[in-house]
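request received
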Amino acid sequence: MLLQVASMTDAVRMKKKLRQMGMPSEVVQTPPRARRGGCGYSVRIQEKALQPAETAAREIGVRILGVLKGEPL
Amino acid sequence: MIYLDNGATSFPKPRSVHAEMAGCMENYAANAGRGAHKMSVQAAEKIWETRVLLAKLFHIPSPERIVFTQNCTDSINIALGGIPESGDDLIISDMEHNSVYRPSLALSKEGVRTLFARAGEDGTVSPEAVLREITPRTRMICLQHASNVGGGINPIREIGRLARERGILFMVDAAQTAGCTSIDVERDSIDILAFPGHKGLLGPQGVGGLYIREGIAIRPMRAGGTGSLSESAEMPPFLPDRLEAGTVNLPGIAGLSGGVRFVLSKGVDRIEKYERRLCENFIRAVETIPGVRVLGPEEHARRVGVVSLALEERDVGEIAAVLDEKYGIATRAGLHCAPLAAARFGILDKGSIRFSPGVFTTPREMTYAARAMREILSR
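response:
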């Protein structure tokens, strides 16, 4: 599952936060079907981590632009 | 060489700075935010880590509000060029470095009026002096934290408070204090903080930073690639991307992380006390030399690690050359890019010679420098 974010800075922040929470994650390029021609970065997470990840994003002020399902970690 | 020119740039640098820069160049000097491959992500992580370290040092609540720039002057230009608008008043002081003075005056072409808060005889600016210049049109106050000539520390906490109470933006130029004097953007009501990486933060040249408090809108003076929202013709609305067009100085930022980590491990308060003690002893040793005048506050607690001497009958450039050639001591002579401060101290025609120790300077080196001055001036 991918969490689309606005920038590499946000992607790195999310990755660090999730790892602090003990959740595996990695920064990837957003797939072409979702990135509307831009560079676009996302954070790949496990499906079960979606809810805590969204809460964590709100906590640190990272805006999730979209959630792409079917992109396994 | 006894290096007493830390006010211009610090030397030597901690080993951690060398190691960070070499590690970056050898292992991950890719372009952050311009790809999702491992090296690019590692580069982005180092940049973020450095923002976090700086945020810790300056008590900044949101590290993403710190933008990397080329140096402190660049930071000041970005802020002054991006915030005041036609019809606004800007307050600076009559002690500012050219890094503030020149861009402020350049704003007059854009319809921004610059007003000068007058410093006292010791070269520091009181809250009352700032208050006197406030008008209904005042948009921003931009002051140095400490003078690079007189070494006097301005009471930024009090000035910050009065600015905040009146809804005026308060910007601090921390060129001489970042890393060697306590700065807390919350406590000091600082809205915008400009700082160099290569002085008290002990990083390499070519990297500086700018903090902008949440909620302050700023027009970018540069536009270009950011690796984000690339489909848009506009610069991204969010920081740091909005003000970081183009590739950032990754090796410099990595080196800066080593410097900031060193500063945090030693503690700013300890560094400040150490440098102050060095200067105090030096001042005691040179102030009795005939024809020497120590610039700046008499009270040592109100000074940073900068001691400038005005000489009655000798040329400061000539003395600096003798110190360099005969004694192996590096100092700086002249106006120190601060003609306003020189005028304030009445030395615009002659300048001063500046001794600025750093965290690696030893008491013995300062004693040697004081003896050298006594010897040269007695000839």
